[in-house]
Design goal:
Elements: H1 2-31, H2 35-47, H3 51-63, H4 71-83, H5 87-95
Helix pairs in contact: 1-2, 2-3, 3-4, 4-5
InterPro entries: HcpB-like (IPR040239), Sel1-like (IPR006597), TPR-like_helical_dom_sf (IPR011990)
Signal peptide: 1-20
Enzyme class: hydrolase
């Protein structure tokens, strides 16, 4: 029983590191101004249901950084981040048509 529990803990940690890796690379690229790489890494994170990655994609689409500006796609990614439990994304989704 302890081995099974330990296995689940280790797998969970590994999955978190994999998610953090895409997200971390995205934020590193964003801070260095490499918006294309930021987009690619945030997309990978979002595809793995990382709410912060989805929210970051929404921000890129809203501001037109690394992608063509698109409020509909911004809203789509804010909505996904909101559904994944990120409260600020819910607010961004509600306000995405107002800005």
């Amino acid at each position: 029983m302890k081995k099974i529990f330990l296995t689940f803990v280790l797998v969970g940690c590994w999955l978190n590191l994999a998610l953090a890796s895409d997200l971390g690379k995205g934020f590193n690229a964003l801070t260095s101004g490499d918006f294309k790489s930021a987009f690619e890494n945030f997309k990978l994170a979002c595809d793995k249901n990382d709410a912060l990655g989805c929210n970051a994609l929404g921000n890129l689409y809203k501001k037109g950084k690394g992608v063509e500006q698109n409020n509909e796609l911004a809203k789509k990614y804010y909505k996904k981040a909101c559904e994944l439990g990120l409260k600020p994304a819910c607010d961004s989704q509600d306000n995405s048509d107002k800005n």
